[in-house]
Design goal:
Helix content: 25-40%
Strand order of the largest sheet: 4-3-2-5-6-9-7
Radius of gyration: 20 Å
Distance between the termini: 67 Å
Number of strands: 9
Shape: elongated
Strand content: 15-25%
Structural class: alpha/beta
Largest sheet: 7 strands, mixed
């Protein structure tokens, strides 16, 4: 079979190291007893070969029609489970009506967007094991107080327990990216719903990190903070100094004041 050409506009860097592919696959735990696994961006199936050995029903999704054609030839047994489409936009309710896990070597240019989609699907996605740009992987797994800690860290850590597993050098890819990569695992925690308005929580977190150098007193001004909250020393901190629970508390206070108006 002719090999698939990595396409720059799709951010494709195909993994060539079989040992790393196996290590990524073995990091998938089937958290919360899920039976289905979706691989995002399988390319030529280097990781797929090892994911197929797991006791899970494997589905593949790729936006690249050349990869899709290659995958159909390589895995005729998966024909019904190979989806040509964009994970960011594809409605997967028909193929994956129940909870599922995700694995993949994510394209660097859309990895953050994939995680925002995971957040939308958080009641269904129980686990994510993925490789992405090391800097983004570290940010997602970063604890509060760290310079890497940001919007995605807070939003994902609200619903997932996150571990940074290992780093991967550029030379094990074709073509080699200009950056190092990192592999992380997210496992759904027990928070079904936050103890606040979740939409408002997302807005508060995004505004808090809107200008990292500002204190929360300044970055959250547009929310018309209640008087009782204005004297809280938490507002003199910067967003990166707050844990998920602190953002939940701020959201509760803002929500309560709106209800009283």
């Amino acid at each position: 079979m002719e090999k698939v050409r990595p396409k720059k506009h799709l951010g494709q860097h195909f993994l060539t190291d079989l040992g790393i592919a196996e290590q990524i696959a073995q990091s998938v735990q089937g958290h919360l007893g899920v039976k289905k696994l979706l691989e995002i961006g399988p390319g030529m199936g280097v990781l797929t070969d090892y994911l197929l050995k797991l006791p899970l029903d494997l589905f593949l999704i790729d936006i690249d029609s050349e990869s899709i054609g290659y995958l159909h030839k390589k895995y005729p047994q998966l024909t019904e489970r190979i989806i040509e489409g964009d994970y960011l936009k594809q409605n997967l309710d028909e193929q994956l009506p129940e909870r599922y896990a995700i694995a993949g070597n994510f394209p660097y240019n859309i990895s953050s967007q994939i995680f925002f989609r995971v957040l939308e699907e958080r009641q269904k996605v129980t686990e994510v094991v993925c490789m992405l740009q090391k800097e983004v992987a570290q940010r997602i797994a970063s604890p509060k107080g760290n310079k890497d800690y940001g919007i995605l860290s807070v939003l994902l850590q609200a619903y997932y327990d996150i571990e940074y597993l290992f780093s991967v050098p550029p030379q094990v890819f074709n073509p080699p990216p200009k950056v190092n990569s990192g592999v992380i695992r997210l496992k759904r925690n027990q928070t079904s719903k936050l103890a606040c308005n979740e939409r408002l929580f997302f807005q508060v977190v995004k505004a808090g990190f809107g200008n990292r150098r500002k204190t929360l007193r300044n970055s959250l001004k547009s929310f018309q903070l209640p008087e009782a909250l204005k004297s809280n020393p938490m507002l003199d901190l910067r967003a990166e100094q707050l844990a998920v629970a602190d953002f939940v508390f701020l959201t509760q206070q803002i929500e309560a004041s709106r209800g009283n108006n």
